[in-house]
Amino acid sequence: MKENFVIAYNTKKKIKEGKREEEKRMRRKMGCRTLKCPTALSTQKRTESWAALQTASHNHCMLGHLMEWFYSGIGGVRADKESVAFKKFILHPEMVGNIYWADVSFKSPYGEIKSKWEIKDTSFVYKVTVPVNTTAWVYLPGVDVELIQESGKPIKEKADIQFIRVENGRSIYEIGSGDYSFSISPY
Q: Is-contact 117 70, C-beta < 8 A?
């Protein structure tokens, strides 16, 4: 049982630090090549043991942090630590491994937050919804502002989208309520 808490902690820590490849190596070292490892071993749900060991309980779900990773990591919907109830939030999708798209939504107290991205050929398309009376910081891959568009227009021409800074290979913008369609090509 103690091993599972260590796994959960280490997985969350690696994801939070942006070390996706290290997290993947950690899983593989433990014998799980994919996030489906327990279900691939003929169980009906995720088990207490990461590797679905026959000596461990199969009667309840563990490792729920993987679902969190799908939303906050792959999908990129994250709470802002300085805000309450998703009044301000972060959209920071992680493109990792051979995952080429994600489509997540989250029902916040202000309304539904949507984050949908896809890598297709040489383009990256990211569609987001920011609920009424909220703001978000969106982290877009790449630093060349000339390649970034929103709804088919150069992002620098959009008065309602404020450039914040470049950080770790991402361009960060603040956006208000509404639907947005960002695209980067070539990606």
A: no
